[in-house]
Amino acid sequence: MKKLFVIFGFVALLWSCSNNNPANNNVNTEIEEAIRLGTVSIFPNPTTENVTVTFELEKSCNLKIVLCDLLGYEVINIYDGFIIERFFSKTINIKHLPKGVYSVKILVDGDTVFEKFIVLT
Questions:
Q1: CA 111, CA 62: separation in Å to the nearest integer?
Q2: Sheet containing 87-93, strands listed edge to edge, beginning at the edge strand earlier in sequence
Q3: What is the dihedral of CA 74, 75, 77, 78, to 10 degrees?
Q4: What average pLDDT does the structure give for the chain?
Q5: Do 34 and 110 meet the contact criterion of CB atoms below 8 Å apart?
Q6: Which side of the chain, N or C, has fewer Cβ within a 10 Å radius?
Q7: What's residue 20's pLDDT?
Q8: For residue 44, which phi and psi values (nearest 5 degrees)?
Q9: Each residue of 39-51: pLDDT tens digit?
Q10: pTM
């Protein structure tokens, strides 16, 4: 199942399991409990040299953040590990990337959120 959210003027996709297992009804609640919805920020957008990813966490969790191209291929691994901090902020150098649309994929305890941004040259 896909759910769309508009966050800071951009569309974020919230992906969850799409089968009929009643246990999967808790997936959306789990990611909402981990990341405070509305706190994910990608700036500046559009950008030419650096992009900063920030968001707030409700609890400690397993976190993986990757930068993906328009086709979904992972271009840069930003973070992968267990995180205790409540506020995440990381600036990534993207000068070497060709212009285009990219997304930051945030995986929290197995659930995923996408945030798009544009690279200009």
A1: 10
A2: 41-43, 50-56, 87-93
A3: -120
A4: 77
A5: no
A6: C
A7: 37
A8: -70, 155
A9: 889 999 999 999 9
A10: 0.70
DSSP class per residue in 71-114: T--EEEEEEEEEE--SEEEEEEE-TTSPSEEEEEEEEETTEEEE
- Total domain count, the chain: 1
- Tell me which residue of 86, 63, 64 sits closest to 76, measured CA to CA: 64
Which range marks the domain in which residue 67 is found? 2-119
Contact 33, 58 (CB under 8 A): yes
Distances (CA, A) of 102 to 1, 25, 31, 77, 116: 22, 29, 22, 13, 6
How do residues 17-28 score in pLDDT, each as one tens digit? 333 344 444 444
Query: Where does the pLDDT of residue 34 fall: very low under 50, low under 70, confident under 90, or very high at 90 and above?
Result: low
We report the CATH number of the domain holding residue 64 as 2.60.40.1930
Question: What whole-number distance in Å separates Cα of residue 103 and Cα of residue 74?
Answer: 9
Cα separations in angstroms, 63 against 49, 97, 107: 25, 24, 6
